[in-house]
Amino acid sequence: MKNFIIRRFILGIFIVIFGTLVVYTVIRFLPTSYVETIARQRASNPLSAMTYQEWLDQLNSVYHLDIGIIPGFLGWLGNAIKGDFGNSWHYGIPVTEKFSQVIWYSVIINIVTFLVQIIISIPLGITAARKQYSKTDYAITVFALLGISLPTFFLATILKYVFSIQLGWFDLYGLTGRFHTSMTSFQQTLDIAYHLVLPVITLTMLSVGGLMRYTRTNMLEVLNSDYIRTARAKGLSEKVVINKHAFRNTLIPLVSYMSYLIPNMFGGSLITETLYQIPGIGYISYTAIVRGDIPFAMFYTTLLTVLTQVSLMVADVMYAVVDPRVRAN
Predict the structure, then answer these.
(1) Residues of the chain above pLDDT 70, percent
(2) Which of 46, 61, 183, 271 is the most buried (most CB within 10 A)?
(3) What is the spatial distance between Cα 266 and Cα 91, in angstroms, rounded to a whole number?
(4) Using alpha carbons only, how large is the chain's radius of gyration in Å?
(5) What does 167-214 look like in DSSP terms, one character per residue?
(6) Per CATH, which fold does 100-291 belong to?
């Protein structure tokens, strides 16, 4: 088991390095030099004592853009390993500092979404499996497929039109209301929670279908096992068979599926946060990227790559604990 974890960890490191190299190379080959734009903006500032060329040379040197791709990437990688991702061009502060300011909004949204998703998906998935090919099964399946198929922007637009424009229950955008600063701490918390209702509903409806189908598929496989038929033959009630025997074995693949929450939680829900203008890591990263903020773009893509590898490693280790054949490969 120890050797398996070490091999998986080393493989993950190589994948992260290769992934960040690809992103760095793509950024270096962008047709428009954002560095030139930043240098021109800073040189046009009346308080600036440096010329355009001086700013350009300095920025190219800081971000290793005045040398080849491989040496430049190695220079960036050396700084990244130390935790130095540079200053955000758009926000004007260190990238990691800006990240620490906004990440908790994304974490809260995804944790709430995850809990609601579990409460809805697993019971419905189990119900669909128990009543296979019934009207209930078909209705749950259609509901799951709708959640999987609907584009984020379409669903968010429909929800905002109904609940914000037609009914006036929620604000269209933002994390706080106009009187947020004059509220007490408790009222401010309620105000933020109120503004997160529609984003959470959007994310839940989009994610609930996948977990629901996954639960149904695994539950059907378990219900057709020999030991389930034996348990029923012993006279155990259906409730005991499902909850005590079947569900426990269904939970193993579900835990590995849930490990993918890690990149979603810290990577932010970019499209949803942007549509509702929630200042989480997704929306902040989108704003920085479209404005040519290379340091933030490199940090964000690196973060997603690392978190994806961590979640995959967690899933692999879980499978290795359960199935010894995985460790032998």
Answers:
(1) 89
(2) 271
(3) 20
(4) 25
(5) S--S-SS-SS-TTGGGS-HHHHHHHHHHHTHHHHHHHHHHHHHHHHHH
(6) MetI-like fold (1.10.3720)
